[in-house]
Design a protein that fits this description.
The structure is a single chain. The chain is α+β, with helices and mostly antiparallel strands. 17% of the residues lie in helices and 36% in strands. The chain has nine helices and 27 strands. Strands 4-3-2-1-14-15-16 form a seven-stranded antiparallel β-sheet, covered by helices on one side. Strands 21, 22, 23, 24, 25, 26 and 27 form a seven-stranded antiparallel β-sheet that branches. It has a five-stranded antiparallel β-sheet with strand order 13-17-18-19-20, with no helix packed on it. Strand 21 and strand 22 form a beta hairpin. Helix 6 packs antiparallel against helix 8. The longest helix has 19 residues.
Length: 516
């Protein structure tokens, strides 16, 4: 009986809105911009509360949830959901919801049968990308015309009279304003990732139309002044998501922010390098940066993202390398100026300052140090991170020069030992050296042998490596197992160790650093 009354009440509310639809054709608050075009639009959203809240109450009585809306040409468009809405993330399970779009007059712009609806005006002006069963199409939200979701990915077009370009298998189609699809027969007109590098740049502050999180109008949210907020949301276009250079949902964008709980102020992506590899694969290297504020204070993150593209313009390999992150690395200000380099056609070398989460086995006990990671580009296009048991993995993958022994090595006052003579000054917090010492180089030399199962005669190193879970002593001689660059590297390491042991002051330069 209660359900019947709720349904009747919802119908009465809906009828009252439909009967007076004309009075809601234009919101009472003036909106000068034709598109909600900035992260700080200077629009007093609270003045729109009555307009939005009345509609949300009606829509909430009809649909499972109404998580987002956008404003365009002085009109509201609501993203509605039927089913379980799990929030702004990609779920590994099959979607448990369907999405649609309803306008301010409760007209159906798009029926709620789609698995995902993207941000408006990102792939093409006046259009929204839509997804159904893993395929993409387009909606003209002004005319309600739908280009069916039959494409693997949709690219932007810069050709007059062409809305966008759809890729279906290895065939490309010009998508035209009348909804028709025209096969592209000229290969030079196909939008390959290596040819549309400028389109891969992304900046949340330049997104044409932001989606607005409807939590701003939630009664519980509005009661809590600390958490009262208005967040923007972006669902980037499919061709950009496919590269892995941006997240499938970007949430928490700062819009007239009044809360210090969380806000995303900046998020930028730019492709900084492209290359054709040995096997005809395209390699794209992207620089990605985010900045924001949450309950723990300001945060920013800096990443390098790698993607490979095959001859059919399919993204076949992805990898992400974190250059720095405020939360996990307080020493990121010491990050190297050149965080990666390509070695030949098959190897990516990435460098950053890392905290040492396990005890480093030298008298100094570094708390943070320069760290090298390696990523292999396979002939298939896959990008695999290479693993090593060594503290210094470069001995395994590249020919060494003396530059590899230089870097930044940080010792925190809270964990120092008597090998450092600390000044009696409370403001001195860290000690930073710029070169590996003789002990480090000896460890570097011996861990090459240890990884192949060498039985150490030296009691010190025998005891140390027997404490390592990966070490299995098996051989008195491992010479035949070393590859050519490891042989060469052992000679370079030994020579450098002898130089440093003889004149450490010539190579190692340390400095104390205090609070800023």
């Amino acid at each position: 009986m209660r359900i019947v009354w709720i349904c009747l009440l919802s119908l009465l509310i809906l009828a009252s809105f439909i009967a007076g639809a004309s009075m809601y054709e234009t919101p009472t608050a003036a909106i000068d911009n034709t598109s909600y075009s900035s992260c700080n639009p200077n629009i007093d959203l609270e003045s729109l509360d009555a307009e939005v809240e009345l509609r949300l109450k009606v829509l909430d009585s009809i649909y499972s949830s109404v998580p987002m809306l956008f404003i365009d040409s002085n009109h509201y468009y609501f993203y509605v959901v039927n089913g379980f809405w799990y929030g702004y993330k990609e779920d590994s399970r099959d979607p448990k919801f369907n999405m649609g779009i309803i306008d301010e007059n409760f007209d159906t712009i798009l029926p709620p049968i789609y698995n995902k609806i993207y941000s408006p005006n990102t792939t093409a002006k006046g259009y929204i990308e839509i997804e159904l069963d893993g395929k993409r199409g387009l909606l003209n939200y002004h005319t309600k015309q739908v280009i069916p979701a039959t494409f693997d990915v949709i690219f932007p077009s810069h050709t007059p009279g062409v809305v966008a370009i759809g890729k279906q298998g290895n065939q490309y189609y010009n998508l035209l304003p009348n909804g028709s699809q025209q096969p592209i027969t000229d290969k030079t007109q196909e939008p390959t990732y290596l040819s549309i590098v400028n389109d891969l740049a992304f900046d949340i502050n330049k997104v044409p139309t932001l989606l607005i999180d409807t939590q701003f109008w939630d009664e519980e949210n509005k009661k809590d002044k600390y958490f009262h907020h208005c967040f923007g949301i972006v669902v980037p276009p499919s061709y950009l998501i496919a590269t892995g250079f941006v997240e499938p949902w970007i949430w928490g964008i700062d819009i007239n922010e009044t809360s210090t709980a969380f806000k995303l102020i900046e998020s930028k992506n730019t492709v900084e390098q492209t290359k054709t590899t040995l096997w005809g694969l395209g390699l794209l290297v992207s620089d990605f940066y985010t900045e924001g504020i949450d309950v723990r204070g300001a945060f920013n993150g800096h990443s390098k993202l790698f993607a490979t593209v095959d001859s059919n313009n399919n993204v076949v390999g992805k990898a992400k390398f974190y250059v720095s992150n405020d939360y996990y690395n307080p020493y990121q200000y010491l990050a190297p100026k050149i965080p990666y380099r390509l070695i030949g056609d098959t190897l990516i070398e990435a460098v950053r300052i890392d905290k040492v989460f396990e005890e480093y086995p030298t008298p100094y006990g570094y708390d943070a140090m320069i760290n090298y990671s390696y990523y292999e580009i396979k002939q298939t296009g896959e990008i695999n991170k290479l693993t090593s048991n060594r503290y210094f993995p470069f001995t395994k993958y590249v020919y060494l020069t003396e530059e590899y022994f230089k870097g930044t090595y940080v010792i925190d006052r809270n964990s120092y030992n008597d090998t450092i003579k600390w000044p009696d000054d409370l403001y001195i917090t860290t000690y930073i050296t710029d070169h590996l010492n003789a002990y480090d180089l000896e460890l570097m030399y011996n861990e090459v042998l240890a990884e192949y199962g060498y039985k150490f005669k030296d009691e010190k190193w025998d005891a140390y490596f027997k404490q390592q879970p990966w070490y299995v002593p098996r051989f008195d001689n491992v010479d035949s197992q070393l590859n050519p660059w490891e042989w060469a590297n052992l000679e370079v390491i030994k020579a450098m160790r002898d130089k440093v042991a003889k004149k450490p002051q010539k190579y190692i330069h340390g400095a104390f650093k205090g609070y800023e």
